[in-house]
Every structure is written in C-alpha cells, then in structure tokens.
C-alpha cells in the first residue's frame, strides 16, 4: 500500500512541477507549486521523516506560497505574459529544468545515496540543536534575506508606479 501511495504522490509531484514551469499564468503556477510542495511533504511523511514533512508544509507550502502570491499581486502580469509568448525562452526554461532534474537523478543514482528514512537522525531535537548551534548564522542570514526580498519587491513596485 505504501508503494501505491508513493507512486501516486510522485506522479502528482512530477505533474505539478512540470505545470509550474510550463503554465502561462503565474498565479496558477503558484497553485501548482503549492500542490507539488504538499505532495513532497507526503513523500517525506512516507519516508518517516515527519519533522521535515511538517516543516515542508508549514514553511514552504504555507509561508513561502503566501509570500509568492502576494508578490505576484504586486507585479504587472501583462508584461510577464508578453515574455512567455516568446517560445524560445519558454522551451529553453523547460529544457533547462528537465536537464537539471535528469542530471541530479543520474548523479544520485551513481553515488548511491541513501533515503532520508534510512539516516535515522532526523529528530526534531537533533535538527533544532544543529540549527541553533552550528547553522545559526545561515539561519539568521536566511531570515534577513527573506525580509530584504519582500522589502525590495515592494520598493520596486512603488518605483514603477511613481514613474507612470
């Protein structure tokens, strides 16, 4: 039964990821991204990485998608649609993502990496200890980076509106 659920979630993840890259409307792309992130959280749950599945849902499928949709609402989507009408850019981006995915998959297959469930040290206590001791600088820099991105998007949007 677990393999049936895994294959279902994997197919949803692959389909949604492809639609993120190929869909013309960025808002629908964000919805497909949310679907892909929820499917990935389900796969993490099947691999018995419950903490990572929860973080995937709360941080990525929750907060990042909300931020992404808010940023999309600030942009002029008509100009973005003109960019996607140029077919070489669209197909080049699809080919790049497909090649990158294939390359990572082949590299993992050659290196023989183990799955997350086999590692055995993904407890919340262990991750919190690492996050707030060894990786505290990277954690804080990431928080500042996310704030700067949000402020930058708002500033750029206001500059464009003042020029009109």
- Beta-strand fraction estimate: under 5%
Q: Assign the structural class, choosing from mainly alpha, mainly beta, alpha/beta, alpha+beta, or little secondary structure.
A: mainly alpha
The tally of beta strands, per DSSP, is 0
Terminal CA distance:
58 Å
Share in helix: over 70%
**Average pLDDT:** 76
Which ranges are low-confidence, i.e. pLDDT below 50, for 5 or more consecutive residues? none
Instruction: Report the sheet with the most strands, covering strand number, pairing sense and barrel closure.
Output: none
Sum up the overall morphology in one term: globular
Sequence of secondary-structure elements: HHHHHHHH
Rg, rounded, reads 19 Å
Individual helix count: 8
What is the compact description of this entry?
The protein is mostly helical.
Structure notes:
The chain has eight helices and no strands. With 164 residues, the protein is an all-alpha fold. Helix 1 (2-22) runs antiparallel to helix 2 and helix 2 (26-46) runs antiparallel to helix 3 (50-74).
Question: Which terms would index this structure?
Answer:
mainly alpha; 8 helices
Layout of SSEs?
Elements lengths: L1 H21 L3 H21 L3 H25 L2 H9 L1 H25 L4 H4 L4 H9 L3 H28 L1
Helix pairs in contact: 1-2, 2-3
């Amino acid at each position: 039964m677990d393999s049936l659920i895994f294959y279902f979630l994997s197919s949803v993840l692959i389909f949604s990821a492809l639609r993120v890259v190929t869909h013309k409307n960025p808002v629908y792309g964000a919805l497909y991204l949310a679907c892909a992130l929820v499917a990935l959280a389900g796969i993490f749950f099947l691999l018995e990485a419950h903490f990572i599945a929860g973080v995937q849902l709360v941080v990525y499928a929750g907060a990042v998608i909300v931020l992404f949709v808010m940023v999309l609402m600030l942009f002029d989507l008509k100009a973005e649609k003109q960019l996607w009408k140029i077919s070489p850019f669209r197909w080049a981006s699809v080919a790049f993502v497909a090649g990158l995915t294939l390359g990572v998959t082949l590299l993992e297959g050659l290196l023989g990496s183990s799955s997350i469930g086999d590692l055995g040290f993904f407890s919340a206590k262990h991750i919190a200890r690492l996050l707030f001791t060894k990786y505290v600088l990277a954690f804080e820099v990431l928080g500042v980076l996310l704030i700067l991105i949000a402020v930058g998007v708002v500033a750029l949007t206001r500059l464009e509106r003042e020029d009109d």
